[in-house]
UniProtKB/TrEMBL annotation:
The chain crosses the membrane at residues 7-31, 51-72, 79-101, 107-125, 164-189, 195-217, 252-269. Coiled coil: none annotated. This is Probable membrane transporter protein. The keyword Transmembrane helix applies. It holds the Pfam family TauE.
Length: 273
């Protein structure tokens, strides 16, 4: 029992740090970790994909709130843009959470892995996509501590359509949706990496709060796991935000691609074999 509790705490610390560092929310670590615990520990056999997703989404709230507060102190969160994205991602998260009841375990593993590979591919070919012209109806500006000024923006209709899809994936897979959200902001709207990851955590916090309510109503939350993982998630959220301050935008993207690739291959293997 003690070893299981220690694993829960470790899961929280790793998921919180990784999720905050690259703007993913931590679910990319929490969901597969809970499913693996259900496989190797008989006492955790109740951790089905639906329960793992619901539990993860509650924990994503903690990680995202911790990260958002830290990023806000660094003045890296674009709250206005984040609010616009949440207007669509919130309803999408509710729909995604409801759809989890129709997923079989093998299909969930495979779908989760393929989704991660898709995002990894998008980030890998970011350089080519950046060459395409973009027209914005909303224009934003950000100045970093070194005095560099970045210009970015978005079209509300495109932002809402993309955010709704991301919110639905967030509720469905319990990962917070940050992988696609950061990709959307960087590839479509030219957000600088540090602003994208910080703003992503703010949107994730709001969307996860909404989506987790649907999972709670369906009884898909293991509160014991939440209580054991939460302290590590909070500490990890703060730690990841601090570490990101000394990392370059390129380093953040390398870290994100590696994290996504490892999780993707592991989940696809579980689903197929």
């Amino acid at each position: 029992m003690l070893s299981e509790w220690m694993l829960f705490l470790l899961i929280g610390l790793i998921s919180g740090t990784v999720g905050s560092l690259v703007g993913l929310g931590g679910g990319v670590v929490t969901v597969p970790s809970l499913l693996l615990m259900a496989t190797f520990f008989p006492g955790q056999s109740h951790l089905t994909p639906q329960v793992a997703v619901g539990t993860s989404l509650v924990l994503v709230i903690i990680t995202a709130l911790s990260s958002t507060l830290s990023y806000a102190r660094q003045k890296r969160v674009d709250f206005l843009s984040g609010g616009v994205f949440f207007l669509a991602s919130g309803p999408g998260a509710i729909l995604g959470a409801w759809l989890t009841r129709f997923f079989q375990e093998e299909a969930f593993y495979t779908g989760f892995g393929l989704f991660m590979l898709l995002v990894t591919g998008m980030l890998t070919f970011q350089g080519r996509m950046d060459k395409r012209p973009v027209r914005w109806s909303v224009k934003r500006e950000f100045s970093d501590p070194e005095g560099n000024i970045y210009h970015y923006g978005y079209r509300r209709s495109t932002a809402w359509a993309g955010s709704f899809l991301i919110g639905m994936i967030s509720g469905l897979f319990g990962i917070g949706g940050g992988a696609l959200l950061v990709s959307m902001m960087m590839l479509w709207f030219r957000f600088p990496p540090h602003v994208a990851t910080a703003t992503s955590m703010f949107v994730i916090f709001l969307s996860a709060a909404v989506g987790s309510l649907t999972h709670l109503i369906q009884g898909h939350v293991d509160w014991q796991a939440v209580l054991l993982i939460a302290p590590g998630s909070w500490i990890g959220g703060q730690l990841g935000a601090r570490v990101s301050r000394v990392m370059t935008g390129r380093s953040l993207m390398i870290a994100m691609r590696l994290a996504l690739m490892v999780v993707a291959l592991r989940m696809i293997f579980e689903g197929l074999f």
